[in-house]
Amino acid sequence: xxxxxxxxxxxxxxxxxxxxxxxxxxxxxxxxxxxxxxxxxxxxxxxxxxxxxxxxxxxxxxxxxxxxxxxxxxxxxxxxxxxxxxxxxxxxxxxxxxxxxxxxxxxxxxxxxxxxxxxxxxxxxxxxxxxxxxxxxxxxxxxxxxxxxxxxxxxxxxxxxxxxxxxxxxxxxxxxxxxxxxxxxxxxxxxxxxxxxxxxxxxxxxxxxxxxxxxxxxxxxxxxxxxxxxxxxxxxxxxxxxxxxxxxxxxxxxxxxxxxx
Length: 261
Description:
Blueprint: E1 2-15, E2 18-24, H1 26-31, E3 37-41, E4 52-60, E5 65-71, H2 75-81, E6 88-95, E7 107-113, H3 117-129, E8 133-140, E9 158-163, E10 170-171, H4 174-183, E11 190-194, H5 197-210, E12 214-217, E13 233-238, E14 241-246, H6 247-250, E15 253-255
Parallel strand pairs: 7-8, 7-11, 8-9, 9-10, 11-12
Antiparallel strand pairs: 1-2, 1-6, 2-5, 3-4, 3-6, 4-5, 12-15, 13-14
């Protein structure tokens, strides 16, 4: 973990209200692993007061850059979308745990809902570097909310789209699209998911029968980002013991069997 100034290199509007922010910082680019996040102070002053957590969507150690993808949901992210190249952001990170991949797994599945695609883009590159076959199931409410993922993914990744209104790809939830693929013979050896909590809960409960190695990246409101304020406590289990862990410090990645829904 470190504090650093990230200089804005570029900000790109991906779809309405969704952006990719490219920051320059060599140390962060070298240290970050898929699944981690940056805790960013939007601007100096009291408003907005708290930092905002953003999953790392990719890095380029050669160019010394880190990218995050975000959606405008309030005052802070609206301010972020208006940044100009050359401005600096006060950043804390990389924070949190990364995804754990299985060395001998040949088939990896990524399941993303909405802005939850961000950390899985970073992971997809790692998995293809490991010479694995990667399938990405990506869903949103409607076609206009789908991020153009192909420009951020290795060409080897096979993408399957879903929209709840049927305006693009499969009509329905992305979890339904994944179940359909399983029925057609897909045999994942490891699964990684990030998205809305109901999506992750549905996957975790179904996985009680499937029993796949399943890791979840949880999205949670955070204040400090290092576990001190305990504002992002998550009910978890270890064996027969029930307790609480911090999403920022102990996560944001958890095995599905650890989370108490």
